Amino acid sequence: MRDYLEFxxxxxxxxEKIEKLSTAATGGKPSSQNDIRKLRTxxxxxxxxLYKNLTPWQRTQLARHPQRPSxxxxxxxxxxxxxxxxxxxxxxxxxxIVGGFARFxxxxxxxxxxxxxxxxKERMQRNFGMPNPEGYRKALRLMTLAEKFNRPILTxxxxxxxxxxxxxxxxxxxxxxxxNLFVMSRLxxxxxxxxxxxxxxxxxxxLGVADRVLMLEHSVYSVISPEGCAAILWDSPEKxxxxxxxxxMTAQDLLELGVIDTILPEPLGGAHRxxxxxxxxxxxxxxxxxxxxxxxxxxQLITQxxxxxxxxxxxxxxxxxxx
Length: 323
Prior knowledge:
By secondary structure, this protein is α/β, with parallel strands linked by helices. It has two domains: 9-53, no CATH class; 60-310, 2-enoyl-CoA Hydratase, Chain A, domain 1 (Alpha-Beta Complex), CATH 3.90.226.10. It is 49% helix and 15% strand. The chain has 15 helices and eight strands. Strands 1, 2, 3, 4, 5, 6, 7 and 8 form an eight-stranded mixed β-sheet that branches. The longest helix is centred in the N-terminal third of the chain and has 23 residues, at 30-52. The N and C termini lie far apart (58 Å). The model has no long low-confidence stretch (mean pLDDT 91).
C-alpha cells in the first residue's frame, strides 16, 4: 500500500478514480477504457508538475517518508557478506546506528549508518533513528577498526538528530559527537557519506565528515529541523514551511553552498517509488567516487579533506575587507 503525504492528496484522488474504473470495467467497455487512459494521462501530468516544483518543506516530508529506503536496505542491495558489529565497549549497543564489515564490489569496506526502522515497534527499538552517545562511540570504534585494517568507510545518514534526553547528556552526548568529528577529520582511509533521508544537526554530522558527501535529490541536511527553527524564531508551527526555506537544507541549496559534492537523482515521486533505480544510482556513484579516492596518497587524502571543510563558510564582501 502506498503511503501518501499531505501534498500528494490530489494524486491519490486520481489514482483512486483509476482503480475504481479498472475494477468496474470488467466487461472491457470502450468508454471505461477511454476514461482510464485520460485519467492516467492526467495523473502523469499532475505528477510531473507537482514533483518539478517541490518546496523545501515538501522535500523534507519526502525525506522522512516511512517507506523510504533505509541504511539496512542499501546494505542488503549493494553489498554482500555484511557482518554487523555491536556495542561501544563502554556502555552498550545503540540500535539507532548499525555498522560492520561488508564487501562492496568485491572490495572490503566498513559501512555505518543511522537506522530509523520501518514498523512502529522497530522504530521504538531504534529510537526513531536518534542515537545516544553509545551509538556514536560504536561508530567511532568501527571507524578506527576500519583504519586499522585499511578499509574504506561508507556512511549513510538518516536521522532527525542525536537523542536529546537527560541520560544521553549525562553520558556525554556532545563529547561523543565532537570526538567523532575530530577523529574523522584525520582518518587515513577514504570516507564517503551519503545523506539518504533526513540529516539532522550534529547527530548527522557525526557520520558526515567525509572526503565526499553525496545527497539524494529529495533528502535534507540542516543544523536544526524546520519545526525546531520555527519554534525558536517565531514560536509558531505555521512558520514551519518558512523555516524550511530559510534553512537552505535541500540538496540543491547545499550543492550551491559547497557543503555537499554531488546530488543523486531520485525517481519521480521519491526514492520509495522505485527503490531499485535508487540503489543503482547510489551504487554506481559510490563505485566511481571510491575509485577516485583509493588512488590518492594518504597525505593528499587528509589534506584535501581538511581543505574541503576549511572552505565552507568563507567570509565575503565588506566584512572580509575589514578583517
